[in-house]
Specification:
728 residues; alpha+beta; Ubiquitin-like (UB roll); Creatine Kinase, Chain A, domain 2; Four Helix Bundle (Hemerythrin (Met), subunit A); 9-stranded mixed beta sheet; 6-stranded mixed beta sheet; 17 strands; globular; binds adenosine-5'-diphosphate; binds magnesium ion
Length: 728
């Protein structure tokens, strides 16, 4: 029986049941080497050394590393772990592991279980098959993974076995970053320094500023049997064909609706794994599209939040198969309904417990809020193109600028009230403001901000970068993305802007201006130079595209072009002066992203050709034959033409779509050959985008989807949208 029918028949027997393990607090962090666990398994000395390394980034010496490694091993063994791995995030976009056992043979022939400090701190995986963008010639394919003590070690429980995972960065022999984590850590440190300097204008007690991230992960869930019957889902994570079902999301009945039981069991199961790993999941609900869901944690420090998100994506994928389900993290698995994003809620917290993006209660804290608020707007304004590049991918191109949330234009929404506050500042702070105006000004600013911001009605769901009361929400990030990349960029541009802010304020102070007045002047200047990025209206509208063009805001819809902004003189200066990337690291990353794009489009194009040729056309031809035979038979027994004119009409349509599909697939293959001969990566990526994807994908799909409607359902072996989205 074709897979499609088999899967549908098996659906009802597939329900897995799980039992609740009670309170979350009793599970939370049991598979992570938390501070509490460290306290229990480490000596005082080792514990202190680990803590100071986490808090102040201090180096851990060899003797101490041995002690810590022993403690971690003792804990892991108490949980039945036999192997360990350095866990890292190479630029492929997934996570990587290479398992080693604790088991060791000594030179005298005895064997023991051992985990030494050296093995904890550094490993040398064979790096040759990870993307390096030419940074590391394969003949000296040496890359190192180095322990990141700020992210706790954890135990990955995969059913068949348990592995101790050590979060690490991944760098080349010569020190260039080859992963997402290393530059992120640098960006967070740059941000910390720049932000502390600015904070000290207001409060000398602040010695550390941490960026915080709360992501919201959207995803689709579908039956595994149906998934397996779709080669496009298996190979690309999205359907390249499929007619929209009669009903999709138009009734808006899925959003916040009751969660289907089979999915609910799945959620409970992966949440439990997440809790054990110390991932503080908080919410779960249905999303807008059928079969679409979301989960979100309590926010954490950015580096930890990023690790937890990549880890969770892995856990979600693994746990789904236990339920005979598949989770789709792709940005656009199904045409015609919403795609999936990963909103990045971002803010800055001080070590004195202040959220710098939450309006304060006193004039002084409000001026501090206003400072960070306006600096964020200015940063996004100045580096909108770099921010856009940070979320560019073949998958996200199906969302950004493709008539769906959000557009490719980066703008900032701040709401009516704060728009008014900024206008006030612009008008009231004049060039020659003196001390007598000061009190007036301050009172105006802080008057009613707090009450107003608690009211969430003043929200704009279409904005790619929105202020939501005490944080910004970067909504353009794709669901399958590693948040590290956008977070590296956001925190770097913020660091850069804050450093400039400090210079500008100091210059005025040196000229004899009073501190608060100097700050207000620079704030005003930043509002003036950054305000064209502010937009309160509907981001999906055509008017906004026109308006944005008038304002000179970039609107780059495709990845190959969006990526250009990574390697402009401006970007190189930005990343180099903040010690995030050298020029060659940037060039390498640019190359890797372009290559990823090319491969993704290439694979999709191949799958389209394959499915069209070996699934769609055979089905259509079978039905074509049936119709032809039918007409022939009716004709032979002498019936008038009117008795088979409808069949003839259908036959003509089918034949037309068969011919078109077949022709277009041939032409697409030719186009691919031409692209493959282009040696320069950027030109090749652009060619794949314009000459393969844009030139053929929609057209081929059009004819195939028409055939789906025309051909006898029993002859159609690919699961249909109504089945993938509504059956479970
Ligand atoms: P919603 O946006 O749906 O109204 P919330 O405001 O509660 O929901 O928050 C959504 C996400 O924002 C959650 O993941 C939450 O952890 C995160 N978040 C809340 N406060 C902060 C913060 N200060 N920094 C970073 N993320 C935050
Ligand atoms: Mg939200």
């Amino acid at each position: 029986m074709p897979l499609r029918f088999n899967a549908i028949q098996n659906l009802s027997t597939d329900h897995a049941k799980t039992e609740s393990s009670g309170k979350i607090t009793s599970l939370f962090g049991t598979n992570a080497f938390t501070h509490e666990t460290a306290r229990e398994f480490l000596s005082d000395e080792a514990y202190k050394s680990l803590m100071s390394s986490i808090k102040a980034g201090q180096k851990i010496d060899r003797a101490m590393a041995n002690q810590i490694a022993n403690g971690i091993r003792a804990w892991a063994e108490s949980k039945g772990v036999t192997h360990f791995t350095h866990w890292f995030q190479p630029l492929t976009g997934t996570t990587a592991e290479k398992h080693d056992s604790f088991f060791t043979l000594k030179s005298d022939g005895t064997f023991i279980e051992q985990f030494e400090g050296d093995a904890l701190i550094q490993q040398e995986p064979d790096a040759s098959s990870f993307p390096s963008g030419g940074l590391r010639a394969t003949f000296e394919a040496r890359g190192y993974t180095a322990w990141d003590p700020s992210s706790p070690a954890f135990i990955m429980d995969t059913g068949p076995g348990k592995t101790l995972c050590i979060p690490t960065i991944f760098v080349s022999y010569t020190g260039e970053s080859l992963d997402y984590k290393a530059p992120l850590l640098k960006a967070l440190e740059a941000l910390n320094k720049a932000a502390v300097d600015v904070c000290n204008y207001f409060d000398k007690n602040i010695t550390r500023v941490t960026a915080t991230l709360g992501w919201e992960q959207e995803y689709f869930v579908m039956d595994e049997g149906l998934f397996i019957a779709r080669p496009d889902l298996v190979m690309c994570g999205r359907t390249v064909f499929g007619h929209t079902s009669a009903k999709n999301q138009q009734l808006e009945d899925h959003y916040f609706g009751s969660i289907p039981e089979r999915v609910y069991a799945y959620m409970r199961d992966y949440e439990e794994e997440a809790y054990k790993l110390g991932i503080p999941l908080k919410t779960r609900h249905n999303e807008v599209a059928p079969a679409q869901f979301e989960c979100a944690p309590i926010f954490e420090e950015v580096n930890l939040a990023v690790d937890h998100n990549t880890l969770l994506m892995d856990v979600m994928t693994r746990v789904a198969t236990r339920h005979n389900l598949r989770v789709l993290l792709h940005e656009k698995p199904f045409a015609g309904i919403n795609g999936s994003g990963k909103h990045n809620n971002w803010s800055l917290a001080t070590d004195t417990g202040i959220n710098l993006l939450a309006p304060g209660k006193t004039p002084k804290t409000n001026l501090m809020f206003l400072t960070f608020f306006v600096n964020t707007i200015k940063a996004v304004h100045d580096y909108a193109d770099v921010l856009r590049a940070s979320i560019a991918s073949a998958q996200n191109d199906h969302r950004l600028g493709a008539n769906e949330a959000p557009p490719a234009i980066i703008s900032v929404f701040i709401g009516q009230y704060l728009s008014k506050v900024l206008n006030d500042v612009k008008e009231r702070v004049s060039e020659k403001m003196d001390e007598t105006d000061e009190s007036l000004l301050k009172i105006d600013i802080h008057k009613s901000i707090p009450e107003l911001l608690l009211d969430n009605t003043d929200r704009n769901r279409t904005s790619p970068f929105a202020f939501t009361g005490n944080k910004f929400e970067f909504r353009a990030v794709g669901s399958s993305a590693n948040c590290a990349n956008p977070m590296t960029v956001l925190n770097t541009i913020m660091a850069e802007t804050l450093r400039q802010f400090k210079k500008d304020v100091d210059t005025l102070i040196e000229k004899g201006e009073k501190k608060e007045i100097a700050i207000m002047h620079v704030i005003r200047e930043y509002i003036l130079s950054g305000e064209k990025v502010l937009f309160e209206g509907n981001n999906y509208s055509e008017e906004w595209e026109k308006e944005a063009e008038k304002r000179g805001l970039p609107n780059i819809k495709t990845t190959p072009l969006a990526l250009d902004s990574m390697v402009t003189g401006k970007a190189k200066k930005l990343f180099e002066s903040n010690d995030i990337y050298t020029h060659s690291e940037l060039e390498a990353r640019h190359e890797i992203e372009l290559e990823k794009y090319i491969k993704k489009v290439q694979i999709e194009s191949r799958i389209m050709g394959e499915i069209a040729t070996s699934h769609i056309l055979p089905a259509a031809i079978r039905y074509q034959n049936m119709l032809a035979n039918n007409i022939k038979g009716l004709k032979e027994i002498g019936l008038p033409e009117s008795s088979y004119s409808n069949q003839k009409q259908i036959l003509e349509q089918i034949s037309e779509h068969i011919n078109k599909t077949s022709d277009l697939v041939e032409k697409m293959i030719e186009a691919r050959k031409i692209c493959n001969n282009i040696s320069e990566t950027r030109s090749k990526a652009i060619a794949y985008q314009s000459q393969v994807k844009d030139a053929f994908f929609d057209d081929i799909r059009y004819h195939v989807d028409k055939l789906e409607l025309l051909v006898d359902d029993r002859e159609w072996y690919l699961p249909k949208y109504r089945e993938m989205l509504f059956l479970r």
